[in-house]
């Protein structure tokens, strides 16, 4: 601190920011310096409690903070400068908003007297980020800064978690004011998210569950956000009721993939048994999920014969897409606890043997079937091999967005929450590599793997340099088919096989690229070499780019075609030209 | 169901639209109106009328009255989306409570001579509109009432030389002793 004073709470705005981070238990932040945040960087330089990870692009800082948050349950923190620094944060902020990830972004702003003047590196940061944050603040007075910072952490982490941004003009960073530690009155009186579920609604829910003949539990990312207690209670509820359980992309790991009641993921690329169970059930318990359009398929044909119970902390998630019978607003851990208590006291395990027999028949369709080859690596096989090689290890998986992401969700079995970091709502290509960096920073001794596609990974490839700088041994496992696979799949299915700009005619040599960054490059072509190469990748304690050359034209099935319902899935063995053409209204000449 | 080739499920919604008046109590702080309006434009909701003013200055509270249209499901969404904003204290659906009074104020400028002028004054009297400015060839009327009454008055002024109208938008309050 440049100005010493007898009152230890008198300090500059820049010092307050670092102090607030420490007071909120922040040990690592991700950022990129620039003119409007130099005073903060000066403070960071003069302390050692908060470690700063220098990224190569602000988007990387945002995704790294998301990965950090998702893998720890703590808020991720990013620090960026004004103007382009802030606009580069728009994608990760939106991503975090869609997936309910607690993120605190601190951005520099031009001095207050220049705001509105089109000053150098000025932009209307709070205006631009208003729709992509849970809340944001522009701090014009240094004496408001402590309150705003504490409120920012509270808003980001409470209720439905989400990203927040605090915009701090440079003169406010320089100015001296009074800091105070976090206190209750820092928060808007108008903000009080509901935690406890309504007792009457909980009784209604238990009555439905106890009398269910064909029940299903459909869980989502909310269970993971709620914390370890919610996961424990969800597992207990499955045990106590004997109900089948499926999950959204964001909810994977809350119930173990090896659990006997596990149906696999549901939705567009979910398993046949999960989607059929959803469609034919008579009671659906939705916990911390939001009936997203990738989940429901055709809305008016979604699970037509069921009574639906919906537990969500965000009232705006209730009845948004699907009308439910018993909404319960509150924290899902809290509510699951109440439901369990009432269920155990008043109900007994319903007899659903015939329902399980029905499910077994759907399971027997083996909807994740694919044909292995001795000549070429099938992407599904690559994920399975990766899963086998890392089974039992302390592993975290991130992904980019596309076919590889869906295959990872289908073929990698998650046993625990917080182990799976993926961009679900926004579908951000380029998320996985920086997210892996964030995860590795939080878990330095764990195995962190980004399951990537050749197209996605190039969007944030520069962060390899960050990984090398901080000796973060992340593994970038690229399923390289030279296509934007999911784009191509849709073009094949819906746009007459006109592959408009979905093929990368030029790709970098990923092995040389890895070496250029100072990492390790590996490349595999043959199925026989896969296992050995994966083991080599795991053994290396440095960042690795793993170029896994896979079958170029493989597509991701099963699949709910557009405009169809859960019981109209296209299964892999049916995915021949004629059946696909029939399933896709509007589809023309196919593959 | 036939739909064009799309990665999204495209469906036609046929639920009829309803008009609702919402009263929103917010913390009066910079950007709060932008947040509320941004929510409407960002999510594709309609704003038919918007009125906003600070109502309790010591507590820094402002009251926003919004008239909006949408299907029942959309109206429910709008209320929840508003309610979860950090600076929003309360959202009350004045239409749903059926116990509310809605008023609007309009200033109506009419230009004319002779019989038109006399007729305008006569109608103003019938509608309890006041003359707040007059020249030898014009009047400005002030009229208060619900939206329908004001629309009707403006329609009547049209053939009599309507020049322009300035309206406040709808303000609403519940009947009876209870506050929102």
Give the structure's gist in a few sentences.
The complex is a heterodimer of chains A (591) and B (180). Chain A has 23 helices and 20 strands. Chain A is of the alpha/beta class.
Detailed description of the structure:
The complex is a heterodimer of chains A (591) and B (180). Chain A is α/β, with parallel strands linked by helices. Chain A contains 23 helices and 20 strands. In chain A, strand 12, helix 13 and strand 13 (307-312) form a beta-alpha-beta unit. In chain A, helix 9 (199-210) packs across helix 14 (332-346). Chain B has 180 residues and is an alpha+beta fold. In chain B, the strands form 2 sheets. In chain B, strands 5, 6, 7, 8 and 9 form a 5-stranded antiparallel beta sheet that branches. A 4-stranded antiparallel beta sheet of chain B has the order 2-3-1-4. The longest helix of chain B is centred in the middle third of the chain and has 12 residues, at 72-83. In chain B, 27% of the residues are buried. The chains are: A alpha/beta (591), B alpha+beta (180). At the A-B interface, loops of A face helix 1 and helix 2 of B.
State the largest interface: A-B, 35 and 31 residues
* pLDDT < 50 stretches of chain B: none
Mean pLDDT of chain A: 95
Helix/strand/pairing category of chain B = alpha+beta
Quaternary state of this entry equals: heterodimer
Strand residue content of chain A:
15-25%
Proportion in β-strands of chain B: 35-45%
Shape type of chain B: globular
- Summed up, the helix count of chain A is 23
